[in-house]
UniProtKB/TrEMBL annotation:
This is Isocitrate lyase. GO terms for biological process: carboxylic acid metabolic process. Can also use Mn(2+) ion. Mg(2+) binds at residue 182. Keywords: Lyase, Magnesium, Metal-binding. It catalyses: D-threo-isocitrate = glyoxylate + succinate. The active site is at 220 (proton acceptor).
């Protein structure tokens, strides 16, 4: 409802309730405008619609891909979206990513943990709620400034300015955007997955990413030792997430099905199969082992299955895990992806070992033979050495073209000596173009970086500590942080305001009138920043 209409509506309510005479309709309407989303489900429904619209737009034009950065704290997510609005004027096609890796490393009560689903599963939903609390506060903070400016314009009798500000308020774009939230492998069986998915959706998640690893053997996608599950097990968890969305009324909730099969050489169980060529039989066809001719070849404890009309003794490790045939990873990825899309998933996540457009495209082209509109969420992972990968890719491309590469040592291309060379510059250009090319050529709808803010926090803290505790002393903070905040227009330089002191002062005045004891008077040192 437009601000002016809401003022009139609340004025009529106050008129009908004489005991509300102390309520200023303008103030109440202002507070309602600053609190657009009342529940996490409101957010999930709103953001699901955005994602569906963005997916449809991408299908028509692959240059309209979406992006996100992983955020491990509400404040980090808030500052990211404030920055995006400041620099680009709109949050369109920019999301947040909630990384299970960062929840494990930074949010667990056990302390820092590896990405192996050992952290409290409630920490995931708690972080979603925290992120949206901070994004909603960013709305309240920005609108608070607009309302204060409106008060000033009305006090000065500047009607034109007041109308301009009302239009900005009525057409205000929220900082609330979709979150792609990592549920790992579901933290247990399908019922456990359903229960956690509900918590995540109730906190505001419109999109849940789930992977096809074994819950109790789960590893980071960039670690060794990954163990996948048969398709039927994974599909039951996709169904559990979909049912959670439907139960809560988020009918267009989005599910991202992640496959770790490219780097996973193990499975915990043999799939159930009822007839040759069914899904279980296809899964089992990838198992490593030897065909045998008679039962005499079976040793104590061996596991034997019937495959391709013959008996096959499958390879099992001392851990009890079964091995896949070497070199079958890509075929398993393609089967995983097609199966997931044909059974309820909306988007795919293929975890690769390097950022290579050709490799991704090769798999996606095969998937699109069965599902023409297949789309990927792709992890632009900090686990890749991007500099080395792209320099080596350029080196290999030049060598294949017949270009002289004798001035470069392929194994040492990370060296700073190559930074300003033709190859180094070209590799940087390939890196810069990676997202655009991957979306245009390889079906990547969404690009994310899982844990960038983990790294930026460490880097900036190192730089500050090095100077502050060294010879620079206070200058390290002043020159490296505060002066940059002022000159770059970073709103946190007025940290009291960013934390909500002005909003609180206004509320006190709404509630107490002239008796309000406010924090933002002439003696507030924040006034030094103008």
């Amino acid at each position: 409802m437009p601000y002016a209409q809401d003022v009139d509506h609340i004025a009529s309510l106050v008129k009908q309730n004489p005991t509300w005479k102390a309520i200023n309709p303008k103030h109440a309407a202002r507070m309602r405008a600053q609190n657009r989303f009342k529940t996490g489900l409101d957010i999930a429904k709103y953001t699901a619609k955005i994602m569906r619209e963005d997916m449809a737009a991408y299908d028509k034009d692959p240059s309209l891909y979406t992006q996100s950065l992983g955020c491990w704290h509400g404040f980090i997510g808030q500052q990211k979206m404030i920055s995006i609005k400041k620099h680009f004027g709109s949050t369109k096609r920019r999301y947040l990513y909630l990384s299970g890796w960062m929840v494990a490393a930074l949010r667990s009560e056990f302390g820092p943990l590896p990405d192996q689903s050992m952290h409290e599963k409630t920490a995931v939903a708690n972080l979603i709620e925290e992120l949206y609390t901070f994004l909603r506060q960013a709305d309240a903070w920005e609108l608070n400034h607009l309302f204060r400016a409106l008060d000033e314009a009305e006090k000065a009798g500047d009607t034109a300015k007041a109308k301009e500000l009302e239009a900005k308020i009525d057409n205000y774009e929220t900082h609330v955007v979709p979150i792609i939230a990592d549920i790992d492998a579901g933290f247990g069986n399908e019922e456990a997955t359903y229960l956690l998915a509900k918590k995540m959706i109730e906190a505001g998640a419109c999109c849940i990413q789930i992977e096809n690893q074994v819950s109790d053997e789960k590893q980071c996608g960039h670690q060794d030792g990954k163990v996948t599950v048969p398709h039927a097990d994974f599909l039951s968890k996709i169904n559990a997430v979909r049912m959670a969305f439907l139960e809560l009324g988020v009918d267009d909730g989005v599910i991202v099905a992640r496959t770790d099969s490219l780097g996973a050489g193990l499975t915990k169980q043999i799939a159930v199969t009822k007839e040759p060529g069914d899904l279980g039989d296809k899964y089992n066809s990838f198992l490593d082992g030897d065909f045998i001719n008679s039962a005499d070849e079976i040793e104590n404890g061996d596991v034997v299955i019937k495959a391709e009309g013959k008996l096959k003794k499958v390879k099992r490790l001392p851990s009890g895990l079964f091995c896949f045939k070497p070199g079958t990873g890509e075929d398993r990825v393609v089967l995983d992806c097609i199966t997931s899309l044909q059974n309820g998933a909306d988007l795919l996540w293929i975890e690769t070992e390097k950022p290579h457009v050709g490799q991704i495209k090769g798999m996606v082209d095969r998937i699109r033979e069965a599902v023409p509109n297949a789309k990927l969420v792709y992890n632009n992972s900090p686990s890749f050495n991007w500099t080395l990968n792209f320099r080596q890719q350029v080196y290999d491309a030049w060598k294949e073209e017949g270009k002289d590469v004798s001035a470069y040592d392929r194994a040492n291309l990370m060296s700073a000596e190559y930074d300003s060379t033709e190859l180094g510059i070209e590799a940087d250009r390939w890196t810069q173009e990676f997202q655009r090319r991957a979306s245009a050529e390889a079906g990547v709808f969404h690009h994310l970086i899982t844990l960038p803010t983990y790294h930026t926090a460490a880097l900036s803290t190192d730089n500050l500590a090095k100077g502050y505790f060294g010879d620079e002393g206070m200058l390290a903070y002043v020159a490296g942080v505060q002066r940059q905040e002022i000159r770059q227009g970073i709103a946190t330089v007025k940290h009291q305001d960013m934390a909500g002191s002005n909003i609180g002062d206004d509320h006190k005045e709404f509630f107490s009138g002239e008796a309000a004891l406010k924090a933002g008077g002439k003696d507030n040192t924040m006034n030094q920043f103008g």
